[in-house]
Specification:
24% strand; 29% helix; single chain; Gyrase A, domain 2; 4 domains; Topoisomerase II, domain 5; Topoisomerase, domain 3
Length: 869
């Protein structure tokens, strides 16, 4: 082996040292990263604002164009398309090209598909497509439309990656693909997510923008309603749409479309007809199944995906389930309702920009303006070239014998070309032929010479073209060309005509390819209302003397005959000291979706939803009202009014307080007042004043009236007075009221009720004695009188506890000091006269007494006897 020279290593070191360059690592990293980032942004991830395509998409479509895969041609294997794209334009592997091709052929991913696929191209459930050797494709009508007139120099062509051929830098785009199909992409430091829109609406917006360039984004809402997703669905509200129209960014709430169906056996089902955009149907079904297993939505009995080319997911519900409640749970817990985050970023003049909708449309219109100008200029140049040749033909035919002789006498084509180029023609000859631009080609001596292009065309003339018929055709074609040349020049000289062409072509696309919207836009209901997730059930609200409140299902109490012992309704605290013993003081029947107005003894009013009252078992105690309402230390609940929520209300805050009428108040000292309901519409969380209360007085009751009723007040000692409500003038919330009854010393008002001639007045005493008497037995008096006797109070009866207006079909709840509850039918209690003592309603121990009564709203669907669990 030959030895290396001694200085060999030194020479190698010198060569190595010469190629080494010291650089700042941080600066080099910064420069390399910026180059990489811009390459990703410009050449990979973000679409061009003009044709709405990323480079990979554009190269696939152009490769299909080069392969002649027009919409009217047969499909070609996708493997061939991918190979052509990879070999000629996009050398990044089939794993980057084929999924992009598949995406452009999926009707659930693209609002207007750009590729017409044949075979398995995946599914909305997320199933993968078949291998590219099994699938076939061709351009769709929309895909071909993007490349219309591309051969007329309408766009710039650039060398491909190996400079062996040319590819377009952008497509002419005869329709606004970026707005219609949207786009998504993640670059370096930025991302884009543009929703699809309806083609017809988008073109309407473009036409409006051409006609009125000063249109605002708000004006565009009249033409473009908002996104139109290929999967349909429902968009909630226009606020998010208006926001991204104006700023390019925003968030949209999108719901799937459902309907309800009745099944056998009294059961019902929720049918999902459409799902939100970009939601995997199989994943949605799986998520619903998980929620059922986790008991989050226990009302679902079964779920089946019966979809074919159309979505149909059947959610079978249990017999007692409420479909709307289940639907709202689905919206809340599953992708059946999603948020679509809009971020409209695109490449504009080789720079990434965040654009609002008007800017997107304007950029597209500017592109189409340039396309029309370049196409018209191309057509003009082609027409001028052809006209030049036809002019040469006309000259040759006018002196045919001379031309034939020159050509015949020439030894070769070059000699004939030189002789023909040297021919001279007078202006008179040219003018006689009707050549349009002869004056531009005359020399100073008014001599016309043939051009090289004309000479070559004359030398290529065939003999049959010298016949008379062919001469006429040449003259006719020349005349038509002159008209076109004039038209092209007029177009190029007029911005108005250019925009008229852009406008007409857009309308033609709309006429041919426009279709109705798939996505509906409805008023935003706000967030999924919590009350929609709560079944609307009848409940009993109970409040103890010490302020413990709860709600209990009405079915927890059974109907009994009068005289029964009752069931335990609430466990009460019993320390053995009378002052510390708690007992149920108030009872109210309501539905979970209702509102409750809480009027306190100090004359303030608070509002609360019934479902916000803690739900407890029938025998449990409840929760302190002070932890629910912001009560003052001296306040106790005096009365509650049930407010029925308006189901038509979108915000859930419109309720019965919006109607005309009054709230009538009564205090223990006999003061009465009526105040218009509308004054209680805006109740703050901390409550507001409902009535001013004098010292040593307290509010005991209030009720809804229409201002024309008659009122009956009942006192603890059994006195009563009936007077017209009109005797009490309307007053404001801060008024204290006027006298309703003149009380005897030591007496106080315990009840107030509205006269109803269809009903009777029920008076109940502490010992469980009740008396139902017709209102006719109570004569009408003037307000503030002494009144008349309604019940003679004795040791046997005890003092009067309360009084109610009741109907024949009503039911009554009675609560005792020990917490017992009895539910009786009013029809089981016979009517008696005002002077009678009454009948026993409930059997009680000697140390027990009735503390509260309440009327129950009848329910025709309820069984006669409800069993106690």
């Amino acid at each position: 082996m030959p030895q290396q020279p001694e200085n060999g290593n030194q020479e190698l070191d010198n060569r190595s040292s010469a190629s080494v360059r010291l650089v700042d690592v941080s600066e080099e990293m910064k420069s390399c990263f910026i180059d990489y980032a811009m390459s990703v942004i410009i050449s990979r991830a973000l679409p061009d604002v003009r044709d709405g395509l990323k480079p990979s998409q554009r190269r696939i479509l152009f490769a299909m164009h080069e392969l002649g895969l027009a919409p009217n041609r047969k499909h070609l294997k996708c493997a061939k398309i991918v190979g052509e794209t990879m070999g000629n334009f996009h050398p990044h592997g089939d794993q980057a090209i084929y999924p992009t091709l598949v995406h452009m052929a999926q009707p659930w991913a693209m609002r207007e598909v750009l590729i017409d696929g044949q075979g398995n191209f995946g599914s909305i459930e997320g199933d993968p497509p078949a291998a590219m050797r099994y699938t076939e494709a061709r351009l769709s009508s929309a895909g071909a439309l993007l490349m219309a007139d591309m051969e007329k120099d309408t766009v710039d062509f650039v060398p491909n990656y190996d400079e062996t051929r040319m590819e377009p830098s952008v497509f002419p785009a005869a329709f606004p693909n970026l707005v219609v199909n949207g786009g998504t992409g993640i670059a370096v430091g930025m991302a884009t997510n543009i929703p699809p829109h309806n083609l017809s609406e988008t073109i309407d917006g473009l036409v409006a923008l051409i006609d009125q360039p000063g249109l605002s984004t708000d004006d565009l809402l009249r033409y473009i309603q908002g996104p139109d997703f290929p999967t349909g669905g429902v968009i909630l509200g226009k606020e998010g749409i208006a926001h991204y129209f104006a700023t390019g960014r925003g968030s949209l709430k999108v719901r799937g479309t459902i309907h309800f169906e009745e099944l056998r056996g009294g059961k019902s089902a929720i049918i999902i007809d459409e799902i939100p955009y970009n939601v995997n149907r199989a994943a949605l079904v799986e998520k619903i199944g998980e929620l059922v297993n986790q008991k989050v939505i226990p009302e679902i009995l079964d779920i089946r995906d019966e979809s074919d080319e159309n979505t149909r997911v059947v959610i079978e519900l249990k017999r007692d389930a409420i479909p709307k409640v289940v639907a709202n749970n689905l919206y809340k817990h599953t992708p059946l309702q999603t948020n679509f985050a809009v971020n409209m970023v695109a490449i504009d003049r080789l720079r990434p920009k965040s654009l609002n909708l008007k800017e997107l449309l304007s950029c597209y219109l500017d592109h189409r303006h340039e396309v029309v100008v370049r196409r018209t200029r191309f057509d003009l140049n082609k027409a001028l070239e052809r006209a030049e040749i036809l002019e040469g033909f006309l000259i040759a035919l006018s002196r045919l014998e001379d031309f034939i002789q020159i050509i015949r006498q020439s030894s070769n084509r070059d000699e004939a070309r030189r002789k023909l180029l040297g021919l001279e023609f007078l202006a008179e000859e040219i003018e006689a032929l009707g050549i349009a631009d002869y004056d531009q080609r005359l020399n100073e001596g008014e001599i016309y010479r043939l051009t090289l292009r004309q000479v070559e065309a004359i030398l290529d003339l065939r003999l049959y073209q010298l016949t008379g018929l062919e001469r006429e055709k040449i003259a006719s074609e020349y005349a038509e060309l002159l008209a076109k040349i004039k038209e092209f020049r007029e177009i190029l000289a007029s911005e108005e005509k250019i925009w008229a062409i852009v406008r007409a072509e857009l309308l033609e696309v709309k006429e041919k390819y426009g279709n109705p919207r798939k996505t509906k836009i409805v008023a935003d209901e706000g967030e999924v209302a919590f009350e929609d997730l709560i079944a609307n059930q009848r409940v009993v609200i109970t409040l103890t003397h010490n302020g413990f409140i709860k709600r209990t299902s009405l079915d927890s109490y059974r109907s009994q005959r009068r005289g029964g012992r009752g069931v335990i309704g609430m466990s009460t605290l019993d320390t053995g000291v009378e002052e510390e013993r708690d007992f149920v003081e108030s009872l109210f029947n309501a539905s979970t979706h209702d509102y409750l107005l809480f009027f306190t003894t100090d004359g303030r009013v608070y509002i609360q939803r019934v479902y916000e009252i803690p739900e407890k078992e029938r025998a449990s105690k409840g929760k302190n009202i002070a932890s629910i309402l912001e009560l003052k230390p001296t306040e106790e609940i005096a009365s509650m009014l049930r407010i029925v929520a308006n189901p038509q209300s979108l915000d859930g805050r419109e309720y019965a307080l919006d109607k005309e009428g009054y709230i009538f108040f009564c205090t223990s000292k006999g003061k009465v007042k009526k105040t218009a309901i509308c004054e209680f519409r805006n109740i703050r969380k901390g409550g507001i004043t409902a009535i001013s209360i004098d010292e040593n007085d307290k509010l005991i009751d209030c009720m809804f009236t229409d201002g024309q009723k008659e009122i009956v007040l009942i006192t603890r000692e059994g006195q009563s007075i009936r007077f017209a409500e009109t005797d009490v003038r309307p007053m404001g919330r801060n008024a204290a009221g006027v006298n309703g009854i003149d009380l005897q010393p030591g007496d106080e008002v315990v009840g107030a009720t509205v006269v109803d001639n269809r009903a009777t007045l029920l008076v109940v005493s502490e010992k469980g004695i009740g008396k139902r008497t017709s209102f006719d037995e109570y004569r009408k008096q003037k307000r503030a009188g002494f009144g008349i006797k309604t019940m003679k109070t004795t040791d046997k009866t005890g003092k009067v506890v309360s009084a109610l207006t009741v109907l024949e079909d009503d039911e009554l709840m009675l609560l005792t000091l020990k917490g017992n509850v009895i539910r009786i039918r009013i029809k089981d209690l016979r009517k008696t006269g005002r002077n009678t003592q009454g009948v026993r309603l409930v059997q009680m121990d000697s140390d027990d007494k009735v503390t509260s009564i309440a009327r129950i709203i009848p329910d025709k669907e309820e069984n006669e006897e409800t069993l106690v669990p």
